[in-house]
Each structure stands twice: as C-alpha cells, then as structure tokens.
Amino acid sequence: MIRHIFFAVCILSFIPFSNAQFSIGLKGGVHTSLVDDDQNYTLDSEGFEALSIQFNEASYSFHGGLFMQAELGSFIFRPELVYSTNRHSFLIEDIKNMNPPTILEESYQQLDIPVLFGAKLGFVRFNIGPVGHLHLNSSSELTDLDGYKGKFQEMTYGWQGGIGFDIRKFHLDLRYEGNFNKFGDHITIADTNFNFDNQASRFMASIGYSF
Prior knowledge:
Layout: H1 2-12, E1 21-34, E2 39-43, E3 49-58, E4 61-72, E5 75-94, E6 102-121, E7 124-140, E8 148-150, E9 155-167, E10 170-182, E11 187-189, E12 192-193, E13 199-210
Antiparallel strand pairs: 1-4, 1-13, 2-3, 3-5, 4-5, 5-6, 6-7, 7-9, 8-11, 9-10, 10-13, 11-12
C-alpha cells in the first residue's frame, strides 16, 4: 500500500510543474545515522540472558547521484536518485559464556529516491517530501554470531526535510531524514528480533552542481 502511494506521488508530481523551469545536476555529500543507545538481549533455551547487543557508533558515510529541480514561481519540485552507503557498529557481549565484549560492524548500500516539494525565497530553498529506499547490498560481521539471520526489506520509506541554498549553478543542502521502519529490525539472533524501538533517522549534507 505504501509503495503504491509513493509511486503515485512521484507520477502526479510532474503535472503542475509541466510549464516550469527545469535544471538537472549532480550531487554528493555525507550523512550519519542518529540512533538512541538502546540495548537488547537474547535469551537461551532456559530463559536466561545469553547475549546483549548494543548500538555503538554510526560512521559518516557518503552519497551521490542525480537531481532534477523544477521552479514555478516560488514553488519548487525536486526529485532525486541517490546512491548511498551506510555503516554502523554494535557492541556485543556474550553474557552466558562471560567472553569479553567485541565490536562488530555492518554496512549496506541503497538507492534513495526523495520526491521533495517546497518554496524558494531568493537563493534560499525550503523543501520536504517522501523518500523511498531500495536496498541494494549489505555485508555484516554479525554473521559470526550463532543463530544470526539478517534480512533487509527490499523497499522502505521515510521523509526528508531541510533547507537549501541555490547560488548560481551550485546547490547546498542540509536535511534531516526520518524513516518509518525501526533501526535494526533486519537483525534476528536465536529467533529474537533486535529492533531498537526507535525509528532510524539521518542528518545529511550535500553539494550539487546543475547544468
């Protein structure tokens, strides 16, 4: 249902901007995930806590891709197609066997498809809209854990909002991204789902150049 709504918004968005001024360009930048430091546990067959997994750190990652910007008066329509990488680390503690804590890393790549609307005042641009994330690939050191199963959803959804600055052909963007799926919901260990009870979010900064 969400997928159908998202693609309907993408298609219908072009209608009111059919007579607008268009520009196409390239963009690139960095982002980092914002995650609350919640801890989760898995139980052994006797019901005792056997393993704890705790979010440790989100590394700065990179994104880059294409954007199109349509301007109709002060109104803005800006769809994008952006390849992004993401990398996190987790603190793992084997409580049952009393092994020392270890840090394991996980990374994944996705195609971000934001569809943004907004208003432009001079060279300052305000925009907000839905975003779809198409999962491409992943690798994880969590596979070293017994009973680990990792399954990313093929498509997830969220929203982006922020401020931009258009100076001639250069475009600077600062955005906040919220998502509707919970962080870590793809991780299962010993039939325990390790979502961290909060929705994943990112802070993003990028610079672009239009042709």
